[in-house]
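Fold these two proteins, one after the other.
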Amino acid sequence: MDDRRSRRSGRARSGGRPGSHRTQDGGGSVNSTEDLHARVALTWLTEPGTRLVHRLVGRLGPVATLDLLLDGGAPDETLRAAVAARRHAGDPRAVAAEAVALTDRLGARIIAPPDDEWPAPLGDLEGLVLPGASRKVDRETAPPLCIWVRGGWPLGEVLDRSVAVIGARAATGYGVHVATELGYGLADREWAVVSGGAFGIDAAAHRGALNAGGVTVAVLACGVDRPYPMGNSALFDRIAETGLLISEWLPGAEPLRPRFLIRNRVIAAGTRGSVLVEAAARSGAAQTMHRAIALRRPAMVVPGPVTSALSVGAHELLREYDRTRLVTGLAHVLEEVGRIGADLAPPARGADRPTDVLDDEAAMLRESMPRRGAIGADALAARAGVPVRTALRKLALLEELGLVTRRDDGYALTRPQSPKG
């Protein structure tokens, strides 16, 4: 364990410097501070995930996109109205400058594409299409414009070997136990554990990873300076020290309900796969799984008691989607997300028994033994339907294995010894 912590600490020191906001283009040149400020302003002006804004940034760049929106030139009436409404709350450029300064004071950093630390898999959100999407949170699922990070680990490297463990807030003891075991096991195998920091399954997965001395990432739906829920403050402090707190929202941003649903797409896209431990019929965690399935990420479900309301959502995912996989422990999860041929789960089987080595004739002889008393070799051979010579040979094997005992009046089943004391 000490060697693993040492390697992790070495990699953590190679991460982005807290307070550093520079981004690099593909040729290695540093983008201007103006570009990053524009991304922050756009994030505040329009909620993360807005597809039209993402497309405009890709075509015009962040500075020109901000100018266009502030001039009232958004090519969509809904977006124009949203921008106009938000501008009543302040000047976007001034808000961005204040957010960047506050980020420095927090010892956090802002990363944006194509920075070396940026998680490339988030780009898959460009093609995310959810069947039957009618709500805004199900349509506006574009990649983030930028991400706030607290912690020394390089985000892209951490997420490249990560698994999301998610589930119900009002978790049962069974769910908490399973999530803790998965979090510990994944971290012990040097996989980062990603979750949302909520009560219940999320917190259990985070704590399991921390107890293993591993890395865990909390993806927040509010500013990195005010993690929610407050009841998990001590947990968030531990995560910030040894793992990562990340968010798409500016410092000070409140944990509004829709933001949790917007945040879930980052959990689904940024990880190698997602494991759902418990979920009711209507569940934000199940919504994360729908995104993972649409992104063709491994989507894994831990089964629960059929009598539990907190297993209904999990079981429905297994019934509805062929691409979901039932997993019952760490070995199954690693087989889904690990390297081909290197992380196969061993087949499930019970403990070895002495009778496992018996061939058909020896097994038949043992089954033909009387439950009480002894029987001669000739009578036993006739009862089992095998030749006497074969019976004698197999009885010698059964005696050697301790399954039968030879007595003066024949052979008898060996009785298990009662434990002493």
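Now the second one:
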Amino acid sequence: MDVTTNGNISFWYADIGGVPQKRPALPGDREADVCIIGAGYTGLWTAYYLKKADPSLDIVVVEREFAGFGGSGRNGGWLSGGFGWSREKYLKTATRGAVVDMQRAMAGTVDEVIRVAEAEGIDADILRVDNITVATNRPQLERAREEYQFYLDWEMPADRMEMLSAEEAARRIRIAGVEGAFVIRDMARVQPAKLVRGLANVVESLGVRIFEGTAVNGFTKGRVETERGTVRAPIIIRATEGFTAGLPGHERTWLPLNSAQIVTEPLPEAVWREIGWEGHELLGDAAHAYCYAQRTREGRITMGGRGVPYRFGSRTDIDGRTQQATIDALHAILTRLLPQTKSLKIVHAWCGVLGVPRDWCTTAGFDRETGIGWAGGYVGLGVSSSNLAGRTLTDLVLRRETELTGLPWVNRTVRPWEPEPFRWLGVHSMYQLYRMADAREFGGLQHTSKLAAIADGITGH
């Protein structure tokens, strides 16, 4: 499938006039109360809540590229408030009630992000919508039903969820071969680049200094060494998510997992009438190698998925450029689910990385002895989770004991990933088995393929 633009960070920047000019770099050595490494959602939310809590704080943010260069400006725009990590793993160090509290806190991020956006005048095309996960074969429908029951068992309010029959699902979105769907309410669609750029402007207006084009070479207690000078600060926050492996000493902390997207030209009204999708729902499927999509403000469709999941040695992409094979695979998913789109042009393709801890469960923490904090490893749920991270880190830095500082993700320790080539082999084997499992299920298998369980076991997913 031919594509007009490949890379150039993401379509979301093309949508707002192109990649922004960088703010000035760090002009040399300086001191601050807080130094935040990374100007994505996590770093900016942390700076925002810290500055709101204590306006006297001198906060510096250092960013290698520009605010929103990474996953914050490239994601699928799902403000979900979801809890996509293993509750059982958190239960090893917490009570069931504490895990439920964390689930509720994550869900509450949707309202909080919308509240701040409205209060601060951030226009990010935010629209409250449902999330619909469609099933297009019998095993997928089985998993959707299991997920629905699982959430009920974990005290998700019943009025937030619904199982749809094939007919009910088709009335929402006319997915080819749909057999049913699982719906979760109270989520939102956003334009990611608008959100992160708006948040950066707000943080800057509060007096936070954002230095772009400033690569960090390393950091220790009280010092952040950059190519432009040293920032001395008693509090340092690592907010580097999918780019964490690029920091010295953190090569195996979090694995940078690739995810890619394509976006169509605006759909003619006649095609929208064929498709439906009048509720602008966030759209995913129940395949093992799942996809994620949204209907954008101006009537395009974005479709995302894993593509080539991991680059050897934790390497990252160059300005969002992705492989042709990934573009073709995403186009195949789009046209399989929505054959009404077959004649549409694909105008932009891009990719980015998301952070994955060894146990696939997000963490946030702060070491009072060193003054170093961190948050991330969101495994694809960063649009909402980063907001909770910013509020949690604020409470930890200010030494406030709150409901947030007692949540199970706080100060969890996770073992590092294996050295190469083992992590490359593990991740690629996992996704190859997922693809094989999906192929068997599309081929007529009437239950979930056992290959998926083997895939999960390989990497502890």
